[in-house]
Amino acid sequence: MAGAVRHAFIDENLRCLAGAVQMRQKAVSTALALTSGAYHTGLITYFTHRDLFPSLMKLIQETDCASQIAEPFTLLGLLVNYNKFEFQNPYRVRLDDFVNDVAIRKIVQSIEHVCTSVRDQYIAVQDDLPEGWSFSSALDYVGLGTLTGKKSASPTLNNEEAKSLFNLLPSPHAGILLATYDFANSNKLFCSNLATLPSNSPRELSALSTFLSLTSYILQHAFRSQRASLYGYLCLFILQILIEDQVLAKQICTDDEKINVRLCRQRPPYLPTTRNERIAATVVLDIMVDGINHNLRRKLDIQLFTLCIGILLRLITVLSRSHFRLPYHWPELWRSLLSFIRFLTTYSADIATLTGAHQLVDDLVSLIALSLSAGESFLPDAASYDDLFYKLVEIGDTLAKFRDDYSFSRRPSSNSINILISVSSHYFELLESEKGNLRNKHLGPRQVSKIIKQGYDGLSISAREDLDHWSSFREADHKIVLKRIARVAVMDVQTLAGERDK
Predict the structure, then answer these.
(1) CA dist., res. 236 & res. 215, Å (int)
(2) Does 170 sit behind a cis peptide bond, omega within 30 degrees of 0 on the bond before it?
(3) Which residues pair with 272 in a beta bridge?
(4) Cβ contact 372:393 at 8 Å
(5) Do the beta carbons of residue 145 and residue 152 sit within 8 Å?
């Protein structure tokens, strides 16, 4: 009886469109607490029969505070995910058809606000902003920063203290990412606003900038807990959906709309820093490279690596088909991918039998082979292209073992690994032959570059269309992991509700 009264109270206050926004916000807070607390019971079916979508969207339209919009949007995310694989969830259908640009823009601005807040909690544990050398920083370095009027920095945490705090992140407010994913997966207008909506003022960053920044921090620490990994998957799902949209993908790859993104630098190895605004695609490349470099474990997170490699494959496909010559530190990408092959080969006994491992290595070799066959169409200079060939020569001994350990000969993808091996062998023979003509047996960079260019004519690489095939995102393929993510988001909403009641 009490539950029915509570449901009726929420329903009445949310539907009272003429009522005060503050009262309706309280009704949303109550609905969030009730929904998260009774998510695995039949009580939530009340909300699936009583359509709250118009009321929630009306409240979002009439709310000017970005932080207050987060609650109704998070509630919507929980309602959309309730048994959505078991029956036709009415809230999911609503997302498909929603075209109110004003409400969508406010939601995107709220996502920007929450992403910044969640990201800043990582920075509070360890401030990783590269600081230029200056008189004030020099005084601060020797403990005299107060002479410049600069506030003293927070005390530096030791490794154990920082580790215990990082293990608790991201904060429970990250639950908004679940609703962000569902809206992105259902609604192209929402995707367009998320990818292109500018910030409200020059002093603020766009939603895309803050989302990418948060993704960078979550991925760099994804290995710390299953919860962090699940939120990492969610961010990668959203990124994959954006990049699979041909219009948005081309916008992300052009320099018409450059963005400024703070990327995580809390653990080595570090990628080169860039202070200026950048093409969004270069930021995505950095995030994927960092995601690979910082999560290498013998018990490999296959899902996370498959998503990272898949996004790189899709991005390289867009670049090669559109002939965008992207300025980027490409040698860092080649180094990361080929080091990953070494890692997979070293620990093949642990990794080769894991579920999804074959799909991961298939995508990895397809990505490298595509870069070889189509590099001239998207790499900005010959040096970036030559570097990939030379790094393949360096890893030549590993490639054959990698092929055998992961049984490529039994699968259609054997063509891609054979391309890598043949290219490596081709240039190894040319370089060894040239060394035989030298007295000191050492080739300089210019000589290596010259040999690589001369060796292009003798290469035979399969047509690009055999290498850039990938399947579009299908939610059903990730049903199990999405259910786990929904459970984590529900628990995070419960945590926030408990903090609010204290």
Answers:
(1) 8
(2) yes
(3) none
(4) no
(5) yes
Separation CA 370–CA 467 (nearest Å): 6
Overall average pLDDT of the 169-197 stretch: 97
Nearest Cα neighbor of 73 from 116, 119, 107, 23 is: 107
Distance CA 21, CA 59 (A): 7
In percent, the amount of the chain with pLDDT more than 90 equals 69
Kindly state the DSSP code that residue 6 receives in the 8-state scheme. Answer: H
Of 360, 357, 352, 371, nearest in space to 419 by CA = 371
Tokens 């909300």, residue? 47
Measure the CA dihedral 388/389/395/399, to 10°: 100
Peptide bond into 331 cis (omega under 30): no
The two tokens of residue 266 are 């809390």
Secondary structure class of 278 (helix, strand, coil): strand
**pTM for this one?**
0.92
Cβ-proximal residues to 65 (8 Å cutoff; 6+ apart), any chain: none
Q: Mapping DSSP to helix (H, G, I), strand (E, B) and coil, where does residue 171 land?
A: coil
Cα 244 to Cα 471: distance, rounded to the nearest angstrom: 10
Per-residue pLDDT tens digits for 40-74: 888 888 888 888 999 999 999 999 899 899 999 99
Is the CB of residue 224 less than 8 Å from the CB of residue 164?
no
pLDDT at position 460 is 65
SS3 at position 452: helix
Q: What is the pLDDT of residue 137?
A: 44
104-to-69, 80, 188, 246, 274 alpha-carbon distances in Å: 11, 16, 11, 21, 31
Give the DSSP per-residue string, 369-391.
Answer: HHHHHHHHHH-SSHHHHHHHHHH
Cβ of 101: how many Cβ atoms within 10 Å?
Answer: 12
Tokens of 470: 């990938």
Question: Radius of gyration (Cα) for the chain, nearest Å?
Answer: 25
463 vs 419: CA distance, rounded Å = 11
Residue 446 vs residue 333, higher pLDDT: 333
Is-contact 317 470, C-beta < 8 A? yes
Q: Which residue has the tokens 């670049």?
A: 319
- b or e along 108-127 (b: 16 or more beta carbons within 10 Å of the residue's beta carbon)? bbbbbbbbbbbbebbeebee
CA–CA separation, 336 vs 339, rounded Å? 5
Length of the chain: 502
